[in-house]
Write a structure and sequence with these properties.
heterodimer; A: about 120 residues; alpha+beta; OB fold (Dihydrolipoamide Acetyltransferase, E2P); 9 strands; about 20% helix; B: Gyrase A, domain 2; Alpha-Beta Plaits; 3 domains; six-stranded mixed sheet; six-stranded antiparallel beta barrel; 19 strands
Chain lengths: ~120, ~375
Amino acid sequence: MTTYYTSEHEWISVDGDVGTVGITTFAAGKLGDVVFVDLPDAGKSVKKDADMAVVESVKAASDVYAPVTGEILEGNSAIVDAPAKVNEDPEGAGWFVKIRLADKGQLSGLMDKTAYDAFCATQ
Amino acid sequence: MSESSNAPLKTTPLHGLHTRLGARMAEFGGYDMPIQYADGIMAEHNWTRTSAGLFDVSHMGPSFLALPELGGGDEAHRKVSALVEKLVPSDIAGLAPGKVQLTVLLNENGGIIDDLMIGRPPREDQQGGLYVVVNAGTKENDFALIARAAQGEAELYRADDRALIAIQGPKAEEVIAAIFPDAVALTFMTFKQIKDTPFGNVVATRCGYTGEDGFEILVDAEHAEAFANRLLEDHRVKPIGLGARDSLRLEAGLCLYGHDLDETKTPVAASLSWMISKARRERGDFPGAQRILGELKSGVPSRRVGIKPLGRAPAREGTEIHNDIGETIGVITSGGFGPTVNGPVAQGYVDSSYGKAGTPVKLLVRGKSLEAEVATLPFVPARYKR
């Protein structure tokens, strides 16, 4: 399983043609306490770089973008019920959605861990 | 109320302290201000509701309006009050010594230029002076307006080079008692000068912007950091940023100028009619009096109310408010998540026919129609020391 990162601070961990998507620890730290998450329904098609979900902190609402094009298989109901999970474990139990990838070739345009960490250092 | 411009950001006397405390800074009202510290907005909010929070509000505009000579009792007070009463609809002349009034500067149409506090000094030898505190983003214009209204009669002395430090929460009184024992006798919306403290001469007002008991202390810049450090040495006190200040005031049902109030709104529309005193209504001698008196008599088309979203999704500023057949009946002017309420809270303006608490309304959030109802303000009961 390989994890890729976007410049919008999403991560996608890919197993076969299924990717698990969330926001990074860096993003969760910037947002602060998450109080509400709005996830797309299963079956919905999402397009790479288009807004897919919404995450709200006490202060503001932010869009979460789809790192790849595909179909939503499942949303993480645990973070809908307890949004604080996004802060507690953003790159684990705080995942957002599972996506069936339409084109695995899109992954090559994303960053690996080393490149992403370097990118965050410039933010 | 933040004004975007290319001018360099101003800083408060506590700027260095914020940086050392690890605050996340951002622009507010032209100043580089702490939005939150390491604990985050939720923890800071809850700390203020249960213990005591320190807020740097030095970006605001404290000032003193004074006749050429102070002293002279009620007559001097009436004289200086008449100067500001040209701009506000409250009975400043009728304030008891030591009392502070929340009021509004009005334009000639009765629109709100700013909300502000005006205090009458408690001491006999200070009569003819007023303590005036305006908002950060509006202060240049406000000060010019007040100075012009007083021209030739009284002088406006800005005090916004000093530090204004708020200490808010149920333990604020105990904390302040150990530093300024004289301040404890103050009740809600009263103030006094306290001389020769370890932090120089200070002005202490029992007021705030959180719904909690607390004080705002005006202290000279040279003593600001020592005073803030003295407060922070107390284990009951933590520094609180503007993020939590906003969620606290929203739960307390208080207005934020530039969002809930602006020049298109009158005090009647803003549900602030209580500011318009009986004596001033009878005299009808404030800016926009004709319109405002008409609204008091016949009502306003839309007015400010609390809005409680019934689900978990916050409704932010600009969210449209609809009735059950999808007609737009108003707009959210500030909204977010209330940590003490443990849910979303908001305020906005609705057509007055929908203004009754409990009225069901819909909120258009990202294309979805969400259930909400008109709510009584505040969302969290105030705990002022009366």
